[in-house]
Amino acid sequence: YAASFYRDRKVTVDDLEYYAKIEHERSFRGFEKKVEENAPYRKQIAKLRNDLAKANRGELDGNVKKLQQKIDKLMAEAPHKINGKLVAEGMKKEGFQTHVHIIVSRKDVTNTYSLSPNSQHRKNTTILNGKEQKQGFDRNKFFDAAEQRFDKTFGFERSFIDQYSTKKLYRKDPVKFFTMVAGLPTNERELALKSLHKLNIPTNKKGVALKLFQKAGLPVSSIPTNKVQLAIKAFNKLKKGLGRAMESGSIGV
């Protein structure tokens, strides 16, 4: 992080003001997939349990046994459970969850100089008080170095789709990105497509075509159907053989 700053004087770790906290637990948040997929079941179960309580108090006509059977059936059908309980917001996650939170000041340790990673430039020179001064932060250098250090330290084998350079390529050049995905070995290609699907990134022909139009700044609603078809044809030619991988990766075309 320190080495990624572009300054007249080399920035070192000793110049940074930061605080770190190690935590050993994680909890499910409301927007996570497992919580959202369980939500319809939880809603139905909550209503049935309320009806069951009323039936037991004589406030509602109903077969107590049948109500309980419906609850048991929904509990069994719910897709995500931990120790027999439905995964819900606030529930502790299973397994090894040790992680660290780090807060870094945007000023140096003396609170004199700005060290903001949000600089618009990687390497730039500006005039301040009549003197030339270097400024900037190389985010590419920082993320690449952080990935390499993490992977080496923990023996992590990072897939193509999880690499910073891959995500950057998708934003900058989606055509080249999908070309590279199509050229991956079968297993890694299927993994990449599944990951894209989870991120709601289109992997079907029409979705990719429309995505490319949007990237080009063209209003999708005004594009004639034949133009979309041309883009789809170009996509087909570019991604020959991708359809089979999509099907085997449980992603529809």
Give, in order, the helices and strands: EHHEEEEEHHHHHHH
Query: What oligomeric arrangement do these chains adopt?
Result: single chain
Total E-strand runs: 6
Low-confidence region ranges: 216-224, 237-253
The domain count comes to 3
What general form does the structure show? elongated
User: Widest sheet: strand order?
Assistant: 1-4
* Rg over alpha carbons: 26 Å
End-to-end C-alpha gap: 42 Å
Structural class of the helices, strands and pairings?
alpha+beta
Q: Main beta sheet, described?
A: 2 strands, antiparallel
Percent of sequence in beta strands: 5-15%
Describe the protein in words:
This protein has 253 residues and is of the alpha+beta class. It contains 9 helices and 6 strands. The protein has helices spanning 33-56, 64-77, 139-154, 164-172, 174-182, 186-198, 205-215, 225-238, 242-248; strands at residues 16-23, 81-82, 85-86, 99-108, 124-128, 131-135. A two-stranded antiparallel ribbon has the order 1-4. A hairpin with a 2-residue loop joins strand 5 (124-128) and strand 6. Helix 1 packs antiparallel against helix 2. The longest helix has 24 residues, at 33-56. It is elongated, with a radius of gyration of 26 Å. The model is unreliable at 216-224 and 237-253 (pLDDT under 50).
Keywords, separated by commas or semicolons:
disordered C terminus, 13% strand, 6 strands, elongated, 9 helices, single chain, alpha+beta, 3 domains, two-stranded antiparallel ribbon, 253 residues
